[in-house]
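From the methods appendix. Each design record in this collection lists the tokenized structure first, followed by the designed amino acid sequence. Records were kept in a plain field format so they could be parsed without special tools. The example shown here is representative of the layout used throughout.

RECORD:
FOLD TOKENS (288 positions):
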């Protein structure tokens, strides 16, 4: 199979969101904050705004100074006319980014990256609020995008399949490991601190390494935002593997695309589509 273009997959989900916005007949107001000159972040912010506007959302992209962002988040949280908030990271590129991410009120957290939603993911709690079974919880956008891509290419039969994930951030890599392991996959998760195995959504220690994990992996997902990461080569992978990259920096050598069965070089358009889905769910759950 040639490279999978996530834009082709995302079209259906964007159209579904567009129809949902029309059906709601409401002005759904989104605010996105960009507080850096990071080129991938700026590009993603502009692409998000364009796609949301075409789908009928009212999307306002605000450029702010990074030291003013905390106050701006509080103001957006308190503004009843704002129904959803984006923050385009990195900003400080350290733990302060996590602090800012968790300032967004969970009722407006489109990307579902705050600890409110990630805790629900880890606990496999599908309810947006306790005691309300009719309001569904949000799932972080990029992990959900990856799951939907795997499903749309007809490969979401995970029982007993081996998955290697190179990223264990609380926003993407860890939620993805939880989701895939809850659905039956045998997941090995790597970050700079080494490997963990996820079983039924729970991490446990494991004695393995990159070479062994890649040699066995049916699905490999990478999101390492560093040029220092040694790119994965075709020689490390099975020829029938599925490889997905969600980092703005390529994590695979060019020979991988011709070697493996399915290669997905980026997931950005699907992430935006899942953000739309989350925005509508936030509006229906908390703002209508």
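DESIGN:
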């Amino acid at each position: 199979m040639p490279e999978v273009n996530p834009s082709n997959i995302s079209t259906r989900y964007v159209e579904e969101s567009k129809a949902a916005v029309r059906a709601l007949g409401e002005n759904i107001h989104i605010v996105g904050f960009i507080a850096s000159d990071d080129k991938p972040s700026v590009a993603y912010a502009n692409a998000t705004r364009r796609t949301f506007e075409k789908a009928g959302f009212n999307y306002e992209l605000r450029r702010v100074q990074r030291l003013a962002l905390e106050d701006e988040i509080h103001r957006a949280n308190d503004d009843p006319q704002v129904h959803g908030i984006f923050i385009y990271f990195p900003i400080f590129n350290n733990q302060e980014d996590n602090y800012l991410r968790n300032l967004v009120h969970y009722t407006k957290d489109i990307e579902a990256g705050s600890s409110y939603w990630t805790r629900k993911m880890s606990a496999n709690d599908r309810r947006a609020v306790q005691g309300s079974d009719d309001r569904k919880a949000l799932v972080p956008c990029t992990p959900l995008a990856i799951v939907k891509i795997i499903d749309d290419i007809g490969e979401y039969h995970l029982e007993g399949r081996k998955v290697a994930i190179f990223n264990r951030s609380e926003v993407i890599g860890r939620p993805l490991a939880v989701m895939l392991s809850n659905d039956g996959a045998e997941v090995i998760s790597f970050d700079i601190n080494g490997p963990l195995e996820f079983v039924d959504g729970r991490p446990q220690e494991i004695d393995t390494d990159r070479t062994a994990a890649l040699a066995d992996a049916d699905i490999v997902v990478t999101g390492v935002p560093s040029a220092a990461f040694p790119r994965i080569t075709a020689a490390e992978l099975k020829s029938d593997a599925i490889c997905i990259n969600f980092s703005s920096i390529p994590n695979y050598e060019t020979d991988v695309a011709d070697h493996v069965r399915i290669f997905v070089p980026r997931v950005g358009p699907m992430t935006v589509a899942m953000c739309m889905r989350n925005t509508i769910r936030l509006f229906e759950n908390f703002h209508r």
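APPENDIX NOTE: Residues 162 and 186 are 5 Å apart (CA to CA).
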